[in-house]
Fold:
Amino acid sequence: MWYDIPLMLLMAYGFGFLYYGLYRNITARVHGRFGPSLAQSFWDSIKLLTKETSTSFGWVFAAGVVIMAAGAVMTVLFIPYFTDTERFAGLSRYGNLIVVLYFMVLGPLGNALGVGSSGNPFGAMGVTRGLTRMIGLEMPFYIALIGLMIAHRSADIATIMAQQQGTIDLVAHPLLFVAAFISFAGFLGKSPFDVVGAPPEVYSGPAVEFGGKFLGLALSQSAIFSFAKLLLMVDLFWGGAADLWELIAKTFVLFLAAVLLGNVYGRFTTAQSVDLLLKVPTLIALLGLLRV
Amino acid sequence: MTYLYEQYDVQEKHPRLFAIRTEASTLIETLQEVTTHTEFVTLAQIACTDWIEEERFELTYLLTDRARSRNLMVKVPLPRTGGSLPSLAFRFPQAEVMERDLHEMYGIVFEGNTTLYDFVLEGWHDIPPMRREFDTLAYVREHYDFQRGRTDGKDVKVEQKRRREEAKKRKAEAQQQAQTPEGAPHGE
Amino acid sequence: MSEYEQSGFVPYDPQAEQQSLEAETEGIRNTQTLIEKAIRWFHARSMFVVAYGTGCGAIEMPPVFTSRYDIERLGVVGVATPRQADILIVSGYASLKTLRRIIRTYEQMSEPKYVIALGSCTINGGMYWDSYNTIKRLEDYIGVDMYVAGCMPRPEAIIEGFVKLQAAIRDNTLRPGYVRYRENLAGYKANQTKVLGERIAPEYEENYAGMELS
Structure:
């Protein structure tokens, strides 16, 4: 249907911000305090969009943010929401898992281009850390997904979902799931792999020169992107969802697991993150690959 | 410690604080000897006292021992204008910053120190402000404005006394009112 | 006359000032459209504070922003850079060196922006009223929106300051500092030049080792 795509984006936007609000509240309760209201992230992003722009860095800077948003939006559109791929399938029949993985990397690269053009050294430090960390995160994630693609003899997400009606991949390939989950927590920007935007360290890294509208757009695309990654994990490892409530339940459980993991651990440095990720989860993924 | 008592005239100000005096010309020699032959090996602070009545500065090089329990002051007199001392930065790296601070605040020149520029005061165009002839209050009155209309330049004790008297007066009046109520008296 | 009174303060007429303030805000309050009201509601509901502790008042800010008094439930969050922030908290005395950085930070923030000044040092010099190196009245140099009195104000007082600022923004009962700064820029710059000299804010590229000796 023609209204599929806008509705998919709206759902990703809404759920992404709602989950971000939940993240703030859960973290607050872990700290022993009350958090903001659940809709606080909505108000933050809307307020940011109404601020005046104080300075401009040229069109490359603006293009960087737009590329980042485009990467997030395209990632969402290529992942089917439900198991019956009639509704809310978006563009998933035109591209498979490999296209999705490509779009996942496109966003941060575009951001690096834009932030680098501003000339702020903290921005350059932030994007360097981000891209280095991504090298570490990608390794176990891709090995796990390649294992899945081999097991199901297909790179199409809908096919992988359909073949999980008997046993879900979480149970059939547990080692692959563990490796992918560790990377997935890092992709979501949760500890211990959240060194990129660390405010006390590099003045929030890539977002150092983002004010007003840029930051609003960056937050919005971050919400959409988080939901896209949650959706990908649910589709690949948990057999997808048949209707909306199942989708909400499954994404929420996965999100909760990542958040609680993040609350327990402190922050690793970039070198420590890459060091860990290239050893332990990669090993787990390779062992899982043997069993495939 | 015995070395000190042999070579210098040591004054014990406190069980853990000792003082010796020296001259500007023999300063480096004295410090080298003290830091190599006694337990006072670390330079902790260079402080300056402005004896404006006697027209001199007195610098105090505060040395401390490894256990950080006992201190030795090496006192050096210096004329208030035109005096200069050799810099100790070659021997104690921390002396560089201390001398920079003293140069900014008192105007003492340390020969050999290349970092004698702005430290805390950026673009200061008056005399070095810690000298006692610098009148802080006059400077403030000339350069800054205060809030208009604030009248709390009152003496606190006088105010408190006045308020206490007023409260007492009010209380006495209230008691009088209670004892002689207006209207008909209730019972006996 | 005490030393303080000799410093040249001028008694003023509180009634006249109150009337002129009321006239100003009355004029503002009548020009609200629905969209402006909504925008103001968002700005009151979500505030980003730039993490810059300028003076000794900064010791009272960590309890406010963390679990002890938790201002995040009012929608207030700390961010790292002035470009992302709405609020600058000037927490205590401002020496001339700090004032240069405060002005640079304030001018980098994007509008609408608000300043909360903590402590008596920003109001009237406070404990350092007779110091040659601190400023006595912050509103001469940047546009201040809310003073919180105290030395230091306790976290409860700081939170009350935030609540009052949020109410004032939402109900449009204040003339924001950035509007005053923008309209009277020449006056503010004259005040800044008077205490700071020609070089009001640090240059972007400067080799400090090459600065001239004073």
In short: Chain C has one domain: 28-203. The longest helix of chain C spans residues 155-171. Residues 7-11, 206-214 of chain C have pLDDT under 50 and may be disordered.
